[in-house]
Amino acid sequence: MNPSDPTPLPPDWAAQTAQRQALADTARAMVAAGLNKGSAGNLSCRARLAGEDGFYITPTGMDYGGLTAQDIPFVALASGAPTGPRKPSSEWRMHRDVYLARPEAGAVLHAHSPFAVALACLRRDVPPFHYMIARFGGDTVRCSAYATFGTQALSDTAVEAMTGRRACLLANHGMLVFGGELQQALGLGVELETLCEQYWRACQLGQPVLLDPAQMEEALEKFASYGKQD
């Protein structure tokens, strides 16, 4: 379904200004980190508005540099109906379906970053050339099948590629990652772009030596407690 025109703002809209502002600020941080330029890509975070579960998401076609909290629309998880003065990103389905499929997802980031796009245009998985691949939940970062942007078909193939993972590449398109909250999603996006660059550079010198299944399994076990303070 396509979202209908935005609905009138509910009474608790103003009370959630800080959450929408955090989303706008993180979208600008994506640009500063080199993940996006202009209005490319999109970012969302889970929210609850007027008693309904959903998510805030960057609006379609707007440069991140001028985004304000008032520009950030809400999309209902069940219906896909938007609320707010701006229309949501054309990729809202992909965000919604990640939230539906992955309860642990609190924020979803999609970027057209240079090295992720380069590998996605080759339709390559990122293999276990480095143990940090385990950061994303498996021994590879998969590349999805191709589908037109903004379609349910793209959403379906993205969710499939992310099975058991926190990230995937989208064929001839870019990257998709999720985190528990906005800063984690941003951090994972930066990490994935870095790994894509490192893999690309290693391939210029030859065929990278890949870690074997036992080595990756050990890395995955260590990442189960990675970053947790005692």
From TrEMBL:
One of its GO terms (molecular function) is metal ion binding. The keyword Metal-binding applies. Residues 21-200 form the Class II aldolase/adducin N-terminal domain. GO terms for biological process: pentose catabolic process. Keywords: Lyase, Metal-binding. GO terms for cellular component: cytosol. The keyword Ligase does not apply. PANTHER family: 3-OXO-TETRONATE 4-PHOSPHATE DECARBOXYLASE-RELATED, FUCULOSE PHOSPHATE ALDOLASE. This is Class II aldolase/adducin family protein. It comes from Azospira inquinata.
